[in-house]
């Protein structure tokens, strides 16, 4: 679990930071008022990040900043005023960034900056540069921002690494490199990694006219001219990564059902179509439909029905958290179960059906039971419509058998023995 230390001696400011942190940070938080309290907390806890005031009553010369940095804790500084000497002092000490405390928005910026840095933890970044010194400088700056950093000595090596590791989300590439320059690397990478999947920042120490425009037109998200200031590097990287995360959040929002938080029908169909394009997949598809759901809506109203649907989604996530689980209709859900035979899949879903029937649902404190009918089909057909048709047919048979039933469709290779357990 990530843990953040916030050091601030003003009661009002600390209250503001507590309030904003509760809204924007889902991490363990410790607050300290002084250098003495900070020492005690650092002695007994390990911190992912620290947000600290530059001066405290018992630490007027940035001692608390020196303390957190000496414990290898990446540190963001809060300061009420800044001059060139203080700025240089902080940068030389190695802080990640500083925020000037001049209004409420600055505190919101500080908390959002902490949130952004925490999201970087575990995120992979690749530096492509033939200069060992340049790579070392950028590695140090990126590691302060909590990235996991890899290095490549030229474009070809970088391209090979990007092809083999799709978890790399940030590429910093120099223009002038042997075997493959930065332009050629960016063009090659964009053939298989889009702007919404990988951030690319071009770099160059040459003052060639139009270099930045060419980099961006070839597919880079941004450009930095060497030598660059630490603050400029930090801001460019943070802004481009924020754009990447915002795109990911928008896509996830578009792919989710608004009520249950499960994947929606659109995402489910897109995922299945993409998977089946390469031929039949070793998975089974189950369609699960709540029995007599209209009666629940009629008795408890649509808000009561919605409450049941959200509880159903929780049960599905608990039982099939490693599978693709979607809401594909009003009271119909789909689960893609990988790597099982049709008989094994039927046994798994029949066990879930039995547990589901015993589960107690609550609507405004009133308890009730629900049942499911389930149709299961092997994903051995060429198209999604064929797989869905076979699962639907099995589901209809389950309904016809009296509901609260799990049925498996016929496979291409053999007829499955249909037995409805209730």
Automatic annotation (TrEMBL):
Response regulatory domain residues: 3-116, 124-241
One Pfam family it belongs to: GGDEF
SUPFAM superfamilies in the cross-refs: CheY-like, Nucleotide cyclase
An MF annotation (GO) of this entry: diguanylate cyclase activity
Reactions the enzyme catalyzes: 2 GTP = 3',3'-c-di-GMP + 2 diphosphate
Positions of post-translational 4-aspartylphosphate modification: 53, 174
A biological process term (GO) from this entry: phosphorelay signal transduction system
Keywords: Phosphoprotein
Domain called GGDEF: residue spans: 281-411
Enzyme class label: transferase
Origin superkingdom: Bacteria
This protein's name: diguanylate cyclase
Record lineage: Bacteria, Pseudomonadati, Pseudomonadota, Gammaproteobacteria, Alteromonadales
